[in-house]
Amino acid sequence: MEDAIHEMLANPNLKAQFYDHPVIRGLTSKKRKEPSRIPGWFYRYPILRGFTKEKRELPSYIPSQQFSLALFDLAMTAGTESSLIQQGILKIRDDLKRDAKQPIEQAIIVELNLLVELARSAAATEAGTAITNKGLALLKTELKKFAKQRPEFEELVDSTLKEAAHLKDEIDEVLKKQPKTADSALSQVRRGIAALSVISPEVNQALNALLLNVEEYVTQGETQLAKARQNVEKWFDDSMDRVSGVFKRYAQMMALIIGFIVALLLNVDSVNLTIYLWREPSVRQALAENASNFELTQAQLEANPEQAMQDFRKQFVGLNLPIGWVIDESKGAAFSDKDCQLFPAIGQTFGIPVFASNKCLAPSQSNNQSNIALKFIGIFLTALAARQGAPFWFDVLKRFVNLRSTGANPDEKAGK
């Protein structure tokens, strides 16, 4: 999700500002440690949050409503110099955390967090008013004071102020070319989006496309800003759907790899199992009976898991299936009865003899003459089956049981 948002915002400074927004920051998981015995609620206020030692992680999930709220708030203040300075402070702080080779002095992070909050407060009001100019002047004063007290940051602070002033001049030139419209929340958002053309042209193009012709919705019982937010939320949802698809494909690939490794370790060869069941009708019949008792086994598993697992082990071992690797006695020392007890115990968790000698296994389990290519295909088919997951196979098994039954259970009919 972080990579997807990075691509959507297309600017590392804007991304840092987005994740530091109070709406998004409230979604992050954090481990907080107050430096004193003062109650924790005291440090929840934004201006005091910097005094806590905390480790924050980026949120694993962001609702589309919060995304649009944070993005619109950033857009409305994008043309202010305070917002540009805030991005510079965030860059200094994040670079310091990422590149530090030694533990960072906590007081530095505290001061930078306070400057970030001061910049946010200065940018929150409409650009050009007296209160904004006063807040901007205070921000610059505090930032220069910070650089004076800590000379190692003086060059970074100077470059941040110069870059913010330069970007502000470019934004002012862009805003002069914008048509004058009635003062409203939507017009302020549009001015902010125009300012984003200097900071992040990709976001500017995307938001302009999403806000195209939203003014006409005021005649259809919808506010223009609400419709604009709906478009942005849909844009975010579509991006997250693509992320979900990528994650699903990655999870399926990992499940296939893990399934192949497990099948290889346990020697679960689907081709060999199929041939064995085809040649052994008694085992095939026993498996069918076990499948018929599937629902009963599920009830026992919920009532007494330990007893159900023991019964499963007995049934599985009694089937004498060709699962598990065979150790050739002719190429090593002879195996004693003690060895016969030892080797099957390696896979005793599920009643599967992962390793065993020929002496310990029935003749049907001692066949290790399969072709290597056929063995690989069989294990790969097992991995493909494992990739489908337990819910898929439980559903298939239940359908199989229903087909063999004369009808549905009375409980199922009553539930329907």
Can you lay out the helices and strands and say which pair or pack?
Layout: H1 2-9, H2 12-19, H3 22-25, E1 29-33, H4 46-49, E2 53-57, H5 64-76, H6 81-99, H7 106-123, H8 130-149, H9 154-176, H10 185-199, H11 201-210, H12 224-266, H13 270-279, H14 281-292, H15 294-303, H16 305-319, E3 325-327, H17 337-345, E4 355-357, H18 372-387, H19 390-404, H20 410-415
Parallel strand pairs: 3-4
Antiparallel strand pairs: 1-2
Helix pairs in contact: 2-6, 5-10, 5-12, 6-7, 6-9, 7-8, 8-9, 9-10, 10-11, 12-18, 15-16
Number of domains: 2
Largest sheet strand order:
1-2
* Cα distance spanning the termini: 40 Å
Helix content: 55-70%
Spans where pLDDT lies below 50 across 5 or more residues: 32-53, 217-221, 328-370
Structural class: mainly alpha
Largest sheet: 2 strands, antiparallel
Tell me the fraction of residues in β-strands, as a range. under 5%
Give the count of helical stretches: 20
What does this structure look like?
The chain has 416 residues and is mostly helical. The strands form 2 sheets. A two-stranded antiparallel ribbon has the order 1-2. Strands 3-4 form a two-stranded parallel sheet. Strand 3, helix 17 and strand 4 form a beta-alpha-beta unit. The protein starts with a helix and ends with a helix.
Short summary of the structure?
The protein has 416 residues and is mainly alpha-helical. The chain has 20 helices and four strands.
